Amino acid sequence: DIQMTQSPKSLAASVGDTVTITCQASQDIDVSVNWYLQKSGKPPQLLIYGGSFLDIGVPSRFSGSGSGTDFSLSISSLKPEDFGTYFCQQSFFFPYTFGQGTALQI
Amino acid sequence: QVLPEQWGTGLLKPSETLSLSCGVFGDPSSIFYYWTWIRQTPGKGLEWIGQISYVGTTNYNPSLSSRVAISLDPSKFQVSLILTSVTGADTATYYCAPSLDITGTILTLWGQGSQVSVSS
């Protein structure tokens, strides 16, 4: 299986900050990475697919980049609703696999 | 936007069979090309269980493939997940995610989650 190594495991930031979360795949997965945000007690919410494409309704302060094995999610001008746990996921090889998550805290 | 609904057995004993269903109601115009099942535990995080296409093609996680089956009733916009011989390691929140994209990789819609506990 493809291992998705996500870092950091947790991150403390303030409203208005810019943060970056990274994900490293154990093999080349082209640009087949999705990013999700999960709030407590809710299912994950898709933010970005195909490495850099924002899902409908996702604010432009979110951006994704990377290809091959190294990927990143950046969030600028943090808002209170951006806090939660972020996950990366590869969708290139079966079984699709997820990173362990990054808890973004105030 | 119509969201998937999930239902099924929440409490099981070891060796029993887990059975969950998922459906999308109220939006007959949508075509869901793939239906994916994912589970989540505090210890292992998010785990992709498998998916089924609208024509019935399945792909399963090899770690579960000997025990899992996903089936589809396209006329009812419903999908089912069967997991046999459950153990405590199968205790998790299970999610279904129907895909509107033809690749089945863009999971915009998620069910509310079904909490399944396995205990003797």
Layout of strands and helices, then pairs:
The complex is a heterodimer of chains A (106) and B (120).
Chain A: E1 4-7, E2 10-12, E3 19-25, E4 33-38, E5 45-49, E6 53-54, E7 62-67, E8 70-75, E9 84-90, E10 97-98, E11 102-105
Parallel strand pairs in A: 2-11
Antiparallel strand pairs in A: 1-3, 3-8, 4-5, 4-9, 5-6, 7-8, 9-10, 9-11
Chain B: E1 5-8, E2 11-12, E3 18-23, E4 34-41, E5 45-53, E6 58-60, E7 68-73, E8 78-83, E9 92-99, E10 114-118
Parallel strand pairs in B: 2-10
Antiparallel strand pairs in B: 1-3, 3-8, 4-5, 4-9, 5-6, 7-8, 9-10
Overview of this protein structure:
The complex is a heterodimer of chains A (106) and B (120). In chain A, strand 7 (62-67) and strand 8 (70-75) form a beta hairpin. The mean pLDDT of chain A is 97. Helices cover 0% and strands 49% of the residues of chain A. The radius of gyration of chain A is 13 Å and the shape is globular. Chain A contains no helices and 11 strands. Chain A starts with a strand and ends with a strand. Chain B has 120 residues and is mainly β. Chain B has strands at 5-8, 11-12, 18-23, 34-41, 45-53, 58-60, 68-73, 78-83, 92-99, 114-118. In chain B, the strands form 2 sheets. Chain B has a 6-stranded mixed sheet, with no helix packed on it. A 4-stranded antiparallel sheet of chain B has the order 1-3-8-7, with no helix packed on it. The mean pLDDT of chain B is 93. Chain A binds chain B through residues 32, 34, 43-46, 49-50, 55-56, 87, 89, 91, 94-101, and chain B through 45-48, 50, 59-63, 95, 103, 105-108, 110-113.
